Amino acid sequence: MKGTNLGELEELVLLVVANLDDDAYGLAIRNYIKAKCERSVSISTVHATLHRLELKGFVSSRYDSQATGERGGRPKLLFTITASGERAMRYTRDLRNNLWSTIPKLSFNQSI
Predict the structure, then answer these.
(1) Mean of the pLDDT values across residues 23-52?
(2) Residue 67: what are its φ and ψ, rounded to 5°?
(3) CATH, domain range 8-100
(4) Where in this chain does the record put each Transcription regulator PadR N-terminal domain (predicted)?
(5) d(Cα 49, Cα 103) in Å, to the nearest integer?
(6) Domain extents for the chain?
């Protein structure tokens, strides 16, 4: 189905949302990507990716009910993976694993 495949950054952001669980908001996602993936992305890129994922139905968003002083009293916009997002993650993982396992001449495909 058109528009439901994950791009590389979309997959990465979706995986990070899953890892952060109840603390998945823009800045936390950006910081996680920088720390764990050693990749620098702008906060606007993270938000644009989250918006695309939400349009595809892979994440949903809600405002945190507890605003903090450090954000000038503004609540965080938190993201959660939907059932469709989970299916997309599993599909992408399975597709990649299948493709990796069928590469004929790479030594890492052989059993140790």
Answers:
(1) 96
(2) -75, 145
(3) 1.10.10.10
(4) 17-90
(5) 31
(6) 8-100
